[in-house]
Amino acid sequence: MKHSKTYRLISEYVQIAFGIILASIGLKAFLLPNGFLDGGVTGMALLVRTQVDISLSILLLMFSIPFLILGYYTVSKRIVIKSIISIAGLALFIHFENFGTVTNDKLLIAIFGGLFLGAGIGIAIRNGSVLDGSEILGIYLNDRFGFSIGQVILVLNIILFSITAYVISVEVALYSILTYIVTAKVTDLIIEGFEDFIGVTIVSKEYKTIKLAIIKELGTGLTSYKGSRGYGSQGHQEDFDIIHTIINRIDIKKMHRIIEDIDENAFIVEFDVNSVKGGILRHYLDKKKNKKLPKL
């Protein structure tokens, strides 16, 4: 069990490191030398970089700090810690690497810059981390006001690209929008939709312990209903609760860890959820406000 956890953790950080390399290639080999932007915090840093002589690495760290502080009160500490390591790693890699410019073709720059950057962001998110703080802002506003993460990021980027068109040029803004679209689509392909919810059904003898762990550690609501397990129509039957819950995709690895720590043989079914209304959609309980856990 202990070796399995260690291997899983090492695997996650190795994949995050690979994501950082891909994202930095997109930035240093394509976008930065040609003055193109992406969306989110990365786009903000790139835009400011065109106006002031400050290292992109420093700007990435500066713009990420407020979102990471917000993330401390919004998402789990594990995600925030991973994100701090990931963003710092990206900043360092960008600072020390020296990729040559691959092409001067603006269309290729927008497409392949977005492809590499989107792949890097997607891999990081799949492993419980973020390389761009705008996702954290989206999660916060989704929890607080019900806005979808996609809507928040879209509004943020509309403002960013409008400023780009005014400060630099409409052409750069249009190519930057294309870069953002490619980045977003590639990210979606990697993580199968960051803002989507995922449904999880869990069948386990340790259902009581698993229910408490999900509520306490993930802070999400769940539904349980009676089920029975047997060996054929006339075989021995055993009654137990079947657990059903809906979480954000970024939390799925954490849920796997929670369940595996309790019951390695638990039967888990995952499925896409396109729309969720009503119920408890809050992802994290604020322990500091002494919110009571719902009764099982």
Strand order of the largest sheet: 2-3-1-4
Uncertain parts? 281-296
Number of strands: 4
Largest sheet: 4 strands, antiparallel
Structure notes:
The chain has 296 residues and is an alpha+beta fold. The protein has two domains: 2-191, no CATH class; 197-289, Alpha-Beta Plaits. It is 60% helix and 12% strand. The protein has a four-stranded antiparallel β-sheet with strand order 2-3-1-4, with helices on one face. Helix 1 packs antiparallel against helix 5 (106-126), helix 3 (56-72) packs parallel to helix 6 (134-145) and helix 6 (134-145) packs across helix 7 (149-167). It is elongated, with a radius of gyration of 21 Å. Residues 281-296 have low confidence and may be disordered.
Write the layout of secondary structure elements.
Elements: H1 2-34, H2 40-49, H3 56-72, H4 77-96, H5 106-126, H6 134-145, H7 149-167, H8 170-191, E1 197-203, H9 207-218, E2 222-230, E3 237-248, H10 252-262, E4 267-273
Antiparallel strand pairs: 1-3, 1-4, 2-3
Q: Which features would summarize this protein structure in a list?
A:
2 domains, 296 residues, Alpha-Beta Plaits, four-stranded antiparallel sheet, alpha+beta, disordered C terminus, single chain, 12% strand
Overview in brief:
The chain has 2 domains: 2-191, no CATH class; 197-289, Alpha-Beta Plaits (2-Layer Sandwich), CATH 3.30.70.120. It is 60% helix and 12% strand. The protein contains 10 helices and 4 strands.
